[in-house]
Design a protein that fits this description.
CATH architecture of the largest domain: Sandwich
Strand content: 15-25%
CATH superfamily of the largest domain: GOLD domain
Distance between the termini: 27 Å
Strand order of the largest sheet: 1-10-3-8
Helix content: 40-55%
Shape: rod-shaped
Radius of gyration: 40 Å
Number of helices: 9
Number of strands: 10
Length: 339
Amino acid sequence: MKKRFITLILLAVGCTVTHAQNYSIQQLHATQQFYLNSTTRTDFGHGDNTTYLAVELPPNTKEWYYSFSATQEKSNKSLNLFPQLLDLFDQSGTLSMVMESIVVPEGNARTNIRVTDFDNAMKFNNGEAYHYFPDFSRENYTEGVVKVTQGTAETVYLCFENPNSLDGITLNIEVSAMVGDKSEGEQALEDLGESIDDFIEAIKENKQAKIENQKKANEWLNYSNTGWVLFESGQYEQSMIYTQKAQEIANHPGLCFNMGIAKWAKDSTDCLPDYLEGLNMLYDLSSKEEAVELLESALSDIETAEEKIEGFKRHEATYAVVKHKLGEIQTIENWKRKR
């Protein structure tokens, strides 16, 4: 019998591990109240219909939120944005429910709110042309809650305007932020350190696995080759014992063929089940060529045994099944492993 080998393939799998940053909700402004005159009274010099609020964002702010309610009458109701965010928040930096679930006291007066920076807030306050972030601003709203993901590393400004020509309004507003315990740079360095440590550990584990796999491969081959040497010397029972030891380490069709022919040579035990077991494993091999070589070797072993072992006569059903499988595999164009 030709010496049979098993091919061991080590697949290196790359993986990125991110160390989670912890976040917390911080209240930046409890409920603030502003009274804004109507545009008509402002034009006559009676108060202002605009004002602004500076929002100093803590370092490592991921996003921030403001809620508001505008009414014609004075209202001392708290907006309760901060406690509601705490209820929705988990430390991974996500809100467990959509922002629309936050309850804001109903308003009955229209207001405009612009999110901008210092320079544009001053222009707004002086009645000059200015720029703002439209996605995070609101126009002609009576109440609402807004999540802001832009302008998270500096002081930003909320600019308020009463667009009503006749009625003054009372505006209540509250601001909170989601803040991380590390800056982006610190987080990146920590993630890098974690990834390097994990990569080094993976190399160690792969190296150890490779050593263990090589050890098993050597044991498999040693038992298999010993079993075949014993078969060729006529010690069929011992051959079966060592072949069985090899099968306990590796499941390979060649071992099934060796076991079958040893059983048949020993006392004419039906060897077809062993050969069928081996044939069912052929598509686990890495290539068509390997399967063809193994089947040709199995047929040759039966023919050689018939010539050299006194009283040995081939098991016709087994020989026919193996030969048929050989012809079947030789016609396959695209070999596909089952696993």
